[in-house]
Design brief:
It is a single chain. The chain is mostly helical and 183 residues long. Strands 1-2 form a two-stranded antiparallel sheet. Helix 1 packs across helix 4, helix 1 packs parallel to helix 5 and helix 2 crosses helix 6. The protein starts with 35 loop residues before the first helix and ends with a helix. This is DUF1360 domain-containing protein. Keywords: Membrane, Transmembrane, Transmembrane helix.
Length: 183
């Protein structure tokens, strides 16, 4: 076991507090070591961020858009996908994940597979940083807040991330075409 790994020696993956868990969540997932307190903290941070933004937006007189044009929704959705993958899978952003995850393997297209480590809030953060599906809520929330506060700048950032997404798919199509041509 690595010296900075806080999982118990038993190899069960259970957090040290599992055996002594009491209260309303004690029977939720016995022996699985779920960092429910860490999840709650992250959910509170997310809710506080979105709520705080809403309060500041209202105080500044900003109005929420009455509708979201389909093109903007598609642009933001594509950017959310790419932003989440960049944060959770890209080699270059490993420094963000390193305190909370361990490299499991390198995969194709310069992506990596990291696994969370530690317990409590550290484990919950590692799970967030290793999961593009989980991270997409955070990236999407940030992009939508940006869309309210600075729509033009947010569209520009979203367009750049969306362009990278399209470029990725073109790279995959080129590689597949090249493989088929070479037999």
């Amino acid at each position: 076991m690595a010296p900075d790994d806080n999982r118990p020696e038993s190899g069960t993956g259970a957090a040290p507090s599992d055996a002594a868990a009491t209260g309303p969540t004690a029977g939720y997932a016995p022996g699985q070591g779920l960092p429910l307190g860490g999840y709650a903290t992250l959910a509170a941070v997310y809710a506080a961020g979105v709520g705080g933004f809403a309060v500041l937006a209202r105080a500044s007189g900003r109005r929420l858009p009455s509708a979201l044009p389909p093109g903007d929704l598609l642009l933001l959705a594509t950017a959310t996908h790419k932003g989440a993958r960049l944060l959770t899978k890209d080699k270059i952003t490993s420094f963000v994940r390193a305190p909370f995850t361990r490299r499991k393997e390198a995969t194709s297209a310069s992506e990596v597979m990291d696994e969370p480590r530690g317990h409590g809030l550290r484990l919950a953060t590692g799970e967030l940083l290793a999961c593009p599906f989980c991270m997409s809520a955070w990236v999407g929330g940030a992009l939508f807040c940006g869309y309210v506060a600075a729509p033009r700048a947010t569209r520009l950032v979203a367009a750049a991330l969306s362009a990278v997404t399209v470029a990725d798919w073109l790279q995959y199509a080129w590689s597949l075409t090249q493989q088929q041509a070479e037999g």
